Amino acid sequence: MGTQITFKGGPLNLDGNLVKVGDAALDFAVVNGDLQKRSLKDYAGKIKVITTFPSIDTPVCDLQVREFNKRAAGLSKDVVILGISKDLPFAQKRFCAAQGISGVEVLSDYQSSDFSIKYGLLIKELALTARSVLIVDKTNKVRYVQLVKELTDSPNFDTVFAELKKLI
Fold first, then answer.
1. Which residue among 8, 56, 58, 130 is least crowded, i.e. fewest CB within 10 A of its CB?
2. Which of 38, 41, 106 is nearest to 72 (CA)?
3. pTM for the structure as a whole
4. Is residue 123 part of a domain?
């Protein structure tokens, strides 16, 4: 059986195999708010903090992106924070402009679910991306994985940034 999470206590199933610490990060195809293609290769030589969420238009996802944006201010230039969801890029761009999000590059997986499938984060029943945080080092090795088991919960931000400090 694959990985399960819950939404308000009800079970949901993730498609594919959840990425694990020690795995080589797989390349992926997503788009930014201007519909420009982005992939793992675009962030070569950087430590990547990848935060994923179901929909930017929900309170927990909103909080998640704003918290990562706030914490991005004190990070090394060697770190990039990527926020990935299946929201339309236009909605993501509107949200980022309204909230002053500049420390998180928000990307959309709406076209093919390429990222969500490859990283084992696609919620079968909802066709949305599960809430998680991944840290990928400069050599594209997965160094940290936090899958949030209840979709309505936030990630543990303190744990993420403690793990990130070990790599900087």
1. 8
2. 106
3. 0.96
4. yes
